[in-house]
Amino acid sequence: MQKISAILFMVFKKTVAGAFFLYGANVLIQQTGLHIVMNPFTAFLAGFLGLPGILSLAAIHFFIFR
């Protein structure tokens, strides 16, 4: 039971960190007109993958919506 709660806590921690990373990235790139949507999935992806995850989300958004 402790292992499951530790894993869930790690996932929660990475999701919160990813939300902060996405917010920071959105603040930095708002002048270019690019905006990465913040939702639990993108926050988890950004938290789990870090900077490469944020860059891949930005690239996906750029190629799909431009």
From TrEMBL:
Family matches, as InterPro entries: BofA
Annotated transmembrane regions: 41-65
Superkingdom, taxonomy of origin: Bacteria
Pfam family, one: BofA
Keywords tagged on the record: Membrane, Transmembrane, Transmembrane helix
Name of the protein: Pro-sigmaK processing inhibitor BofA
Upper taxonomic lineage: Bacteria, Bacillati, Bacillota, Bacilli, Bacillales
